[in-house]
Design a protein that fits this description.
258 residues; alpha/beta; Rossmann fold; 2 domains
């Protein structure tokens, strides 16, 4: 695999008792890009993410990351390589402060997550890095706030910070703006753009305005297969994509939701 591409799947397929959820997918993710994976409900996007993170094993095909075949690896091995996934549902500890959540993620990266007997003062060296991460996602003013008290959009920003704490080389974002109002969508979209500097992001996203504004490249799945791949301006005019999303009478995807 060329060093230009951080991730490549070759003929990746997944069947469930005769149902083909992902079918012969050849995907290349360019290093440093924001790459969006879109498609109607049931297109196979989440199954594809589960294959990348090893929550599912493929029926056939290969997954290559940084030139290494990682198809047979366990989830923890793949995570240690720097592939980190952010889930659709906010995955933070509600009864810890914002700073404590990020600190816990930093501990995990150090391999000290289960050292419960250590005095809290031993964690203070992590505070500087935790505060840097909070600043990166515009949460520096919320460090001492109980996470349960954060607005929904800010919780997603915190989840982004805890993901960054694991120092991912490839971030997999699973519908990062789901369930948000317009203001939160705008804020989180800008945060994704901001944190993408020197990182690669592969994201599943239903909001086409978000995809159009930040994705360098878009891959469209339908019934488990790729039907289009390219920049938004090109993909949004593809007749197969228009039909898959909105029916043959529509002429574009701007503002559409899967």
């Amino acid at each position: 695999m060329s060093a230009e591409f951080i991730l490549e799947t070759q003929g990746l397929s997944k069947e469930f008792k005769g149902f083909v959820a992902v079918s012969d997918v050849d995907l290349k993710v360019k290093r440093g890009h924001i790459h969006a994976l879109i498609g109607p409900n049931g297109a196979g996007k989440t199954t594809f993410f589960n294959l990348l993170t090893k929550f599912l094993h493929p029926t056939s095909g290969r997954i290559v990351f940084n030139g290494i075949d990682i198809t047979a690896e366990r989830p923890a091995q793949t995570a240690r390589r720097g592939i980190v996934r952010s889930f659709q549902i906010s995955a933070v500890f509600p009864h810890m402060t914002v700073l404590e959540n990020v600190r816990a993620a930093l501990q995990r990266n150090l391999g000290t997550s289960f050292h419960f007997w250590k005095a809290e003062k031993t964690l203070f060296p992590l505070h500087e890095r935790a505060n840097q991460l909070l600043a990166e996602v515009d949460l520096e003013g919320f460090a001492d706030t109980l996470t349960a008290e954060l607005p929904y959009g800010r919780k997603r920003a915190l989840e982004l910070a805890t993901t960054l704490a694991l120092e991912p080389e490839l971030m997999l974002l699973d519908e990062p703006t789901q369930g948000m109002g317009h203001e939160d969508v705008t804020r989180v979209t800008e945060l994704i753009r901001k944190v993408s500097a020197n990182r690669t992001i592969l994201m599943v996203e239903h909001n086409m305005n978000v995809v159009a504004s930040i994705a360098d490249r878009i891959t469209v799945l339908q019934r488990g297969s790729i039907i289009a791949d390219g920049p938004y301006a090109e993909v949004s005019k593809n007749p197969l994509v228009i039909e898959a999303y909105m029916g043959t009478t529509n002429t574009g995807l701007q503002g559409a939701h899967a």
